[in-house]
Amino acid sequence: AVHYALVARDSEVIAEFSEFPGEFSLTAKKLLKSTEKTQVFKTYTQGNKTFNFYTFEDLTFLCYSDLSLGRELNLKFLDEMRKSFPAYTRKAGAFAEVIKKTHIP
């Protein structure tokens, strides 16, 4: 399962969503600041969870998920997020709908 997702421009988070609070948000933001932006897809493992980054143009898409999901499904999730993100508006809760509509089998 994917537990958390964000979209950032450089190191600035412009949208994020999680169904529950946790320290993973702080860890994700620290990793975001220290991760090379030239990487197209990058994964960091923390126990049985992973932080996955997908950089496209000037945006970075990140998800925090179970290790069992695997790299391929995480990349598919992040790519679907990238495709759906233009539908995001500044309306409160809109990004949550983009994330919830992003489905991985």
TrEMBL record:
Subcellular location: Endomembrane system
GO cellular component terms listed in the entry, alphabetical order: endomembrane system
InterPro entries: Longin-like_dom_sf, Longin_dom, Synaptobrevin-like_transport
Positions of the Longin domain: 6-85
Keywords: Membrane
Major localization listed first in the record, in broad terms: membrane
Membrane topology, from the record: Single-pass type IV membrane protein
A Pfam family of this chain: Longin
Family: Belongs to the synaptobrevin family.
Name this protein carries in UniProt: Longin domain-containing protein
Organism: Fabrea salina
